[in-house]
Amino acid sequence: LVSLIDLGRTVLEMAGLPAPNRLEGISLLPWVKGEPKTPRDYVFSEDNYQVMIRSQDWKLVHYFGQESGELYDLNNDPDELTNLWDEPANRETRVELQLAILEWLGTSNYFNAPERTRQSDSTPRRWPVHSPQLHGPVAPTARPPVRP
Questions:
Q1: CA atoms of 110 and 104, how far apart (whole Å)
Q2: What does the pLDDT read at residue 124?
């Protein structure tokens, strides 16, 4: 699973340049070179009022402020025609994906970007708790921003 946010780090690594901390994603260069690398469990996408998570098998769209959303079994419904959000049999999968969204939002630039938190661009962008599958490498001195 790859995302458009991976292209920035990939191009910078190919050019031999360091990626700024604010740049999310991971470099895809190891895969291009055929080097073994652990694949991600999820990719994410966000918009002003929604966030999407996709795994190899499932896709969930969460609408902020709404009680329902969209959940699709991509193996059995690749065209995403049957919304399984309210199906009791899929509740565990839905909750797992929603929790992964919360973890991602807590570490993503979407809510923690310098312009939203008044951080300088050189301030590391992530908390010490970090999953490399979510965003990419973390700055070793990452600390939560100090809010006035």
A1: 9
A2: 43
